[in-house]
Amino acid sequence: MNIVIVGHVDHGKSTVIGRLLADTGSLPEGKLAAVKGYCQKNARPFEYAFLLDALKDEQAQGITIDTARCFFKTNKRDYIIIDAPGHIEFLKNMVTGASRAEAALLVIDAQEGIKENSKRHGQIVSMLGIRQVVVLVNKMDLVNYGQDAFNLITQEFTEFLHQVNIQPVNFIPISAFNGDNITTRSANTLWYSGPTVLEQLEGLANRKTTTELPLRMPVQDIYKFTAGGDKRRIVAGTILSGAISSGDQVVFLPSHKKSIVKSIEGFNIQPRERAAAGEAVGITLETQIYIKPGELMVKVNEKQPAVSSQIKVNLFWVGKAPLVKNKNYKLKIGTTRIAVQLVEILNIIDATELNVNTLKEQVERHDVAECIFETASPIAFDPISVIELTGRFVIVDNYEISGGGIIIEAVSSSANPGTKEGQVREILGEKGNQQALKRNGLMRQVQPNYWVLRLRMAGGQIQAEQLLKVAEIAQRYGQGSLHLTARQSIEIPFIKLADLEVVKKEFLAAGLQPGAGGARVRTITACQGSTICARGLIETTALAKEFDQRYYGRELPHKFKLGITGCSNNCLKAEENDLGVKGGMQPEWVESNCNFCGICAALCRSQAITVDKEKAALVYRETNCHYCGRCVKACPRQAWKGSEGFLVYFGGLFGNQIAIGKQLLPIIFSTEELHQVVETTLAFFKKQGKAKERFRNTLNRVGWKLLQQELDEVVRR
């Protein structure tokens, strides 16, 4: 069990631990004699605290600077005792030391009484989610072991702990220096009938082991194999808690997609039937579903994690710049990487002044704060009180880890004071956080207090029953009208902020999500492709779904449009996207089948084919070919064979400015190679682009050759 000892400086935390170790015989042989010898040599009185304060600076100053850990065991279990510093300048060390504790001993000097730092440490313990708190009223010998002094501290500090949501396990009167009530009951406190410190430690409850907890496996990546006809799609990740077996029904959150575990695999080992917490595994599924890295795999029949875009957190900030509202940061939890904004500061403990401030508008370096964050889209997590491993996070600012904390709970619209509409407006819109609304697919209308909600529709695809649900929502929460956008989506106007959360929930239940706005990869557009259209050369719908799962909503310097069109008819205008994909077909002439009828030459719009009927001759100029596939589709004698592929265009613009993208690569035949090209392009824009600069303008500024070189490396691989 991990136990942290906290409290005001010089109230005797290290002495408590030193005495506990000495009285239980847990010290290394010769340690006690060595410390006593050190004290005698330096003409200093012996202190049990020196058994822990190993640093010379600490012994010289008589204070604990860093967290010291020691270990001992009883017949019941092993213990790790963490002595956290209480001095003002080292409060951040105290937070670090307490962050993984299962219980806390909070020490108060009976003579000095409750100090402000005692309360600050109590509040930090509460903010870190520690609920087993035992208060040790130390130095009882300095108040002649008086029960009145003990009762006064007990009453006052109990009231304070209740204010910070802690129900103390017990108050114990002790004298660490004399050993009263540490491991044996003291004759000096006959009025106290409770347990000793050691007995109380034995009575505390351990957290459940990770294998006893519900299954939690963050998805690290999805791998697809093609060699030798292998069609497996392997969902890879490390099991954080629980266990998984073949045949288990699982659900991936926040997408809510379900399947059944077909096999459990690992690198260079045979498939097995079961895996448990701590193991890195690959999972194959009975039904192929499109999921993406960052989702959380859980069992359908076990306790589910929370799914929300608003979270109440306790946070310790170490960034060079303060944490401010309405600025985009990156939140990392498990394998999830997502944009996040600070939307409300509930209170702050200033690490220098040690006071609580509920009015500050930003979180300074080394502040401990209770805040509300909003992510760009819902995430799956567990409150820290349920499962630690999926309740801790870090915040990244400008590529540096700048803060870390724990998630207390999901925040619903009704969780904050005021009316529902007022609360939603405060968090999302009316305090300048318009970008958060835009990221969630909302656009302000001309009419006051109304918003247009855009749907996420990969490739413009929607099921009939989903369309009925959209119509129902438009009737119930809007004014019954819908708008079909040029980017293959549906917009519902006249949505009120007060209804936003319930509308999102109804969409989610129907398998729909709001669209993306802001500086991100926008909705993936696609024509119907070869599955529907007679002219289609590639299967666009499945490709659009893959693009949606891999790239949709990815944070970039500016908006980024991806479009897929199935053939040279170019219904989706591939060249006018930041990155556009057009279906192509590379023809190959089969001379033995040709009767030189000239149909192919007549249909070829690029004059890549000429036919001389009298001489029975055909010339194919590949440099002129646009890979439209007309020759292949039209030939009545199968004299032309075709290989389907992808033509990719970069840097197109459609909007305030219009520009045609450039084809920087030859035709691509591999879907995996196409994904590598897209990933390389997005990474290039992320690295080279500036805020509010479109991709084409980035290429004009840094040079198209720089992108060409990176793409050539990908194609050569």
Description:
Mean pLDDT is 83; it is low at 54-67, 86-94 and 413-432. The chain has 17 helices and 33 strands. It folds into 5 domains: 2-203, Rossmann fold, CATH 3.40.50; 217-299, Translation factors (Elongation Factor Tu (Ef-tu), domain 3, Beta Barrel), CATH 2.40.30.10; 306-410, Beta Barrel (Elongation Factor Tu (Ef-tu), domain 3); 444-515, Sulfite Reductase Hemoprotein,Domain 2 (Sulfite Reductase Hemoprotein, domain 2), CATH 3.90.480; 522-586 and 626-714, Sulfite Reductase Hemoprotein, domain 1, CATH 3.30.413. The strands form 8 sheets. It has a 6-stranded mixed sheet, sandwiched between helices. Strands 7-8-13-11-10-14 form a 6-stranded antiparallel β-barrel. It has 717 residues and is α+β, with helices and mostly antiparallel strands. It is 24% helix and 28% strand. The radius of gyration is 33 Å and the shape is elongated. The longest helix has 18 residues, at 671-688.
Number of strands: 33
Strand order of the largest sheet: 2-3-1-4-5-6
Helix content: 10-25%
> Which CATH first-tier class of the largest domain would you pick?
Alpha Beta
Which CATH architecture of the largest domain would you pick?
3-Layer(aba) Sandwich
Biggest sheet, in brief? Answer: 6 strands, mixed
Rg over CA atoms, rounded to whole Å, is 33 Å
Mean pLDDT: 83
What count of structural domains?
5
CATH homologous superfamily title of the largest domain: P-loop containing nucleotide triphosphate hydrolases
